[in-house]
Amino acid sequence: MDSRDKSIDQSTSEATDPNASLGTIDQELETVSSPTTPAKVESSASLLEDPQIAKILQSDSAMDILLDRLKRSITTCDEFSRYIKKKSILEDDHYTQLRKISKHTQDTLKNDGKKFKSDSFERSFEKIVTFDSELFNVGSPYVKALTLMYEQLGSLASTVSKSRKSVKEEYRRKERECGDAIAAAEKSKNKYFNFCNELEKLRTGDPSKKTFTLKGSKTGTQQEEELSRKIEIADQDYRAKVHQCKKLKDELLMVHRPAHVKALKGLILEIDTAMSLQLQKYSTWNETLVMRSGILISPLHEDSNKPSIKKIAASVDNEKDLYEFLTKQGTTSLNRWLTPVEYKVHPLLGNNLRKDSQRRNITPTSAAVTGAAVGASIGAASSSPLSPLPASTSYSPTLDPKVVGSRLSGPRELQVSETASTVSVPPGVKQNLATFGVPIDVLVDNDTGSVPAIVRQCIQVIERYGLDLEGIYRVSASVTKVKELRELIDRDPANIALIGPSSPDHVLDDDIYVAATILKLFFKSLPEPLLTNVLYQDFLDAVKDDSGSTKISTRLHQIAYELPDGPYWTLRSLLFHLNKVAAHQDVNRMTIRSLSIVWGEVLLYTEVANTEDMSYKAKVVEELLKAANLIYEAEP
């Protein structure tokens, strides 16, 4: 009992002083009133002195009632302890992950500064992210307090359970002793009455009748004397055992039962009181945690050195940010690549052109106009007064034929507008966007779907013709065919339709291998891997961590959700496609493990090969394939 009393005293002291477990409250928190002390419930001890309760506790069922009640309290304590333990683990993981992602984001903003805006938004965002790191310092004492609490509750339940078992066994032993004494007295009583009945029959029978036994015959008188002696002995034994059973029953009712009832009653109040105090501690810690978090986010005495998170977010000035960017990065230099070439006549032909011009001046007006049109079509300067070439045609800052045509005058307007429509795009300007080596988000923005067209086409071809093809994605296609097809697609994205067999009735294995190789080549040629450089290490850490606190599938789900839209939906299509391929592994001999080994280096490639990470890359793809239906909504 001393250890339990010590445990209760410890719980009481901690409940009245929550700062002992949570640490010193911030200086600003000291200006606020301390967390509200739980209101004390008016004592109801007098209710247990009620005569009806006393009568129940003195009854034969008192022990069974109290044993059942104590068992319920122990079960409640165990459940309370399990809840606190689970919450402790959850909060610990929450604050640890919060600090981890905060540090990762800060490092990314610091190390890859050239990729981000470097303006007031980024500065405000970085400051706000640091609040998550500081919240770890607020939540860490709370987690430690919860850990201590569930350990104390577990110890309390174990100690009280042992005490209950000891009291129960001792009382049951006393009950058995009393019961055995009563049974012995009952047996002695039956023996005594049997002898008396035999004596009565002997006296009412024939006195001269003899009884024959192994030791000889006995007369009635001899038999009566023998029975009298037995009755006397049985009577003494009967009296003694009756006295003993009454004595034990009196001891059970007057000594043992009250003592055991008192012990059980004390254990019940002890464990219930301890749980009540722990519940008060739990509420106090929660209140303190919320207050500390609130003051961290929004200080009571706000100043420039420690602004609130709301003020930090409101300090973003987008217009000023754009102004500063343009003044630092902007330039007014001329893009020479867009400057049109001016027509210059070679000196060798200059005299001949002038002679031709003079002859055209003598011809009729209609001939002059026709000659001017021809001159305009070749862009030559003419000295004819009927068809002067405006100076504005020598250079135009725009390539729009309509604008160029609007600046011409005289009879040339019709000819310029007619010829402008046939002018080809200047050399160097691509009419169509390339496919290989272009970020997925860019391809998606120029497409109607959420997945690049080349990915959709390759998957469609393989699922239609190649699911049963042995070694799909492992067997390489013809290098020449792959190279030619890549060049055609980069020249015009419409050539994506060339992927696959030329006729559904004439499908060659090499056509399908080419489609599979093109798909892998597309992902390998991306500026960064599909799973992105930012999340590369997170994916590897997810499968390296074998602590078991969170399932690998859950961690991968959280990381995949952070992918940009383009890679996110492309990964979805690829995972469901590879699962379909693996479903035909009996025929194509490509299991999930085989596909993971092939695609690990494709989806998580690095410029510098790292042999240590190769197995983890394959593990990432393998776990993603297994968790595809968890990360994404299953395909119908």
Automatic annotation (TrEMBL):
- Tell me where the signal peptide lies: none
| Rho-GAP domain span | 438-632
Q: Which organism is it from?
A: Komagataella pastoris
Gene name for this UniProt entry? RGD1
**Which ranges are annotated Low complexity under compositional bias?**
381-399
- Which residue intervals are annotated with compositional bias (Polar residues) in the record? 9-37
Entry's InterPro entries? AH/BAR_dom_sf (IPR027267), F_BAR_dom (IPR031160), FCH_dom (IPR001060), Rho-GAP (IPR050729), Rho_GTPase_activation_prot (IPR008936), RhoGAP_dom (IPR000198)
Q: What is the protein named? A: BA75_04640T0
Which GO-annotated molecular functions does the record name?
GTPase activator activity
The F-BAR domain is annotated at 51-321
